[in-house]
Amino acid sequence: MNIHEYQGKAILKSFGVRVQEGIVADSVEQAVEAAKKMKEDYGSDWVVIKAQIHAGGRGKGGGVKLAKNLEEVKERATNILGMQLITPQTGPEGKLVSKVLVAQDVYYPGESETKEFYISVLLDRAKGRNIIMYSTEGGMDIEEVAHSTPERIHKEEIDPKVGLQGFQARKIAFNLGLSGDAFKDMVKFITALYKAYDATDSSQFEINPVLKTSDNKILAVDAKVNLDDNALFRHPDYAAMRDVAEEDPMEVEASKSNLNFVKLDGNVGCMVNGAGLAMATMDIIKIAGGEPANFLDVGGTANAETVKAAFNIILKDPNVKAILINIFGGIVRCDRVAQGVIDAYHEIGNIPVPIIVRLQGTNAVEAKKLIDDSGLKVYSAILLKEAAERVKEVLAL
Fold first, then answer.
1. Residue 111 DSSP label
2. Class of the 1-20+109-247 domain?
């Protein structure tokens, strides 16, 4: 589950990570009042107005602006709130900005130069270890750095059984070229950041940039946090941070029916039980000349209500020209799924696209007979090859 920058910073702060302070606002008036409060607390007229959406690259899209006085705060907030912000991570459609973060200016003058770093903590699933990824080249062009000069991206592997060791935090601070107070503060920052990542059951903490201020303090200027959905039952306070307005409406609806759904850009809707089988199903759709319109895993206990909900979600996509249902009957019997398909078909009414049903496993023969005798516009298959051929046939119609 993605959360907003201001929410991620609140989590970091609760674990002792120093952050760029800010106040969230969902109107121009609130933004102005927030700027006044920031001046009271930090003594500067300058603030940064930052669009709050679930996407990176906001600065490149015009979603992060410096304001030097209240008039500029009003102007910047007016321009950013309500804009359709397009970044490299939103796609061409962009995302609507409904709130902004009025943040303190941390690039103040001092005895030494400011410096931006990149630091993230994430899971390397192949190795079963956590990784701290870091670079001296933080800021808006980190993707270009990773592409053009990958040697500037460093990684530190952490065994989750023993956690981050002190020498590892010191190694990271040393590789970032720090010394003195900045070195000590970076060690504290890294230690607190990893603790936050581990304790919150997150799948990613990305801080870009991490700033060394002119008085050698280390703080998080941004926070991109992804919480593991499977662990949210342990963190109801974090689950409450979910902003469904930032998510695809179809994916939100699917989650309400306990369906694992991801919207894609193809023309063949998929309804499958099991993530591995869903991936294989998308492969056979590609082989047949189609493109998968979604990833949809109905789970191991599919019934008529589950199938109906899945149908309703898939059919909301106008690009879908056919639906492929691919069920392996292990926990659930194939004939029950077949009856669920028939019941859902009757309940929904006229389904405007052809449906291919491939059922294999327990009671697959009985399931095929139910489908064939239903009189519905449903094509049955037993083998994956048959299902692929059926997809090719219906797409050619």
1. S
2. alpha beta
Six-digit token string for 170: 């010191």
Q: Which two tokens stand for residue 188?
A: 């504290």
Residue 36 counted as an annotated binding residue: no
332 labeled binding residue:
yes
pLDDT in tens, 123-181: 998 899 999 999 999 887 787 888 788 888 999 999 999 999 999 999 999 999 999 99
Residue type, position 254, single letter: A
Q: Tokens 């979604």 belong to which residue? A: 294
Q: Is 134 in a helix, a strand, or coil?
A: strand
What's phi and psi for 378, nearest 5 deg? Answer: -130, 130
Question: What is the domain partition of the chain in residue ranges?
Answer: 1-20+109-247, 21-105, 248-396
**pLDDT tens-place string over residues 272-317:** 888 888 899 999 888 888 899 999 988 766 666 778 888 889 988 8
Helix then strand then coil, in percent of the chain rounded to 5, is: 40, 25, 35
CATH number given to 21-105: 3.30.1490.20
Q: Active-site residue numbers?
A: 118, 206
**CA 38 to CA 380: how far, in whole Å?**
65
Per CATH, is 248-396 categorized as 3.40.50.360?
A: no
**Taking the model in full, what pTM does it have?**
0.80
Q: Is 58 annotated as a binding residue?
A: yes
- The three-state secondary structure class of 63 is coil
